[in-house]
Amino acid sequence: MTIDRNIQEINRTMWSYGEYRHVADLLRPGAELLVDRLAPAPGTRHLDVATGNGNVALLSARRGAVVDGLDLTDEFFPDARARFAEAGVTVALHQGDAQELPFPDASFDLVTSTYGVQFAPDHAAAAGEMARVLRPGGRVGLCNWTARSWTAHFQAILSSYFASPTGHQGQPMLWGDADHLGELFGPGFAVTTERRELFYPFATAEELVAFFENCFGPCIAAKNTISPASRWKELRAEMVEMTETFHTTDARGTGVPVEYLLVVAEKKGQQ
User: Fold this and answer.
1) Which of 79, 141, 156, 75 shows the shortest CA–CA distance to 110?
2) Which residues 6+ apart lie within 8 Å of 249 measured at CB?
3) So what's the pLDDT on residue 3?
4) How far separated are the first and last CA of the chain, in Å rounded?
5) Is 199 within 8 Å of 27 (Cβ atoms)?
6) What domains does the chain contain, in order, with CATH numbers?
7) Rounded distance, CA 245 to CA 193, Å?
8) Nearest 10 degrees: CA dihedral of 151, 152, 153, 157?
9) What is the mean pLDDT of residues 239-259?
């Protein structure tokens, strides 16, 4: 597979903007549920793809797993290393692309990604690489946004103001569809899925949009590059209006529920 290095660099730069650690705080409950579901044992060889500032990697290392974390954007790593040091764990961090993992075949017992690998432009390449580095009998664990989630609507508004990409680029929510995952991983995997929700606790839709406008790299990149600049006001108003349709008050408080697909895919065969 040939990676488009221009797209790779654009994506790396885009995700480096803002204060991703604050976004990662919102995503932590999904990481906790995934690690609880996978229950890595001490000594488990674990690769966390699109590790960000290490939500999953930290939790797995606390259980005694031998963890490698990989991300396209190494600007996340200083925060990740500080978190690992505070928790008293060791995680090896690597800058790299999910579509071209720098590891030998069958290197890991467990490969995970939370809300990350689904943004790789080439779905088949990313899934194929996760499968390649996983040993027979090992498991892939994922949290993927679904097509009906708030995140999907948010991304759709951003994308609608820019040129349409080709292929599967810009269609990350396909990873939130069980049928698409079955096609990606093929008959060599037993795939199970479950719809779950995160909850973003913001008092108003305006506050949630302002948070992402200031902290979330792709949103900041869009604001910086939109032309003419006056269109940002129009785009932002669409985001607030859309977010208001999700905004609710329930037993969790006031905020926005965000659906995702929890995925466990076991690679068939014996080690």
Assistant:
1) 141
2) none
3) 58
4) 27
5) no
6) 5-156+165-202+255-267 (3.40.50.150)
7) 26
8) 100
9) 98
